[in-house]
């Protein structure tokens, strides 16, 4: 039974033939729409007879994730028979902002203009706002878990000692930050060699103001899920903490929301002392990983095993040896 339209004087009848086609996300092969308004009959016909290639899997997945695998029409909640609809009805316009997930009933209503394009764009905007809010919420949760926020490669900053010529500025990255950054990627390279599996390093995802930085990422359609590596340097036993695993788990959630791809995480803990590999030195870190429900696993190395040690933080005090200039008599 076709839903009643807002104007009782207007009736809409729909005759459609359906065909299953891997490339036809708007399922109608022939759609005839007949409207009777004040006794005047108008008929329009749109055909989708020409085959076309299917939507890329990543794009289709992103549309599904954006809508929560449910019909985008507010209050519908249908999650079984779903179809991807082109809002402007141009099947060649496969930009994500032009694609919306609809149930069979609302898909037919969209093609009959019972739900017009303006309304569909408004529903799409609500989806985007909701999806963005969810990502922002997850980022806030991640920041709350963070013990120390990671950044991209350390940027040089003005040094405390500057050249006498004020036209010249000396800048240098903080020694400890730079060497820790090197350790992260040496540890990843060690893991790659051990597992014979290679990763993109220092991967950044941006969507508007949203930013997600990953130490390393393996996107692989031959694996059950993508792999995200997160490295933590636990210099001394007191740095053991339960937050490292949940931090990575939260990154996985944000990654899946941004990309629509499934992922699992591997936490690489690099310990500063060989004895920390044994006993209960990492008890809280292990408990935190176990709380992630199998989404995160732990790999522990010592600095000696990966072949690099950042050294003592206090070494920065000995990085320069500048002496005060004596007075010069004229």
At a glance:
The chain has helices at 57-66, 104-111, 117-145, 175-195, 244-259, 283-290, 303-306; strands at 10-18, 28-37, 40-47, 82-86, 99-103, 157-158, 171-172, 200-207, 210-218, 226-234, 263-271, 296-302. With 330 residues, it is an alpha+beta fold.
Structural summary, described in words:
The chain is an alpha+beta fold and 330 residues long. It is 29% helix and 25% strand. The protein has a 5-stranded mixed beta sheet with strand order 8-9-10-11-12, with helices on both faces. Strands 1-2-3 form a 3-stranded antiparallel beta sheet, with no helix packed on it. It has a two-stranded antiparallel sheet with strand order 4-5. The N terminus is likely disordered.
Distance between the termini: 104 Å
Beta strand %: 25-35%
Structural class: alpha+beta
Gyration radius, rounded? 29 Å
Low-pLDDT ranges:
1-47
State the CATH topology of the largest domain: Trna Endonuclease, Chain: A, domain 1
Assigned CATH class of the largest domain: Alpha Beta
Overall average residue pLDDT: 79
Tally of alpha and pi helices: 7
Query: Which series of helices and strands comes N to C?
Result: EEEHEEHHEEHEEEHEHEH
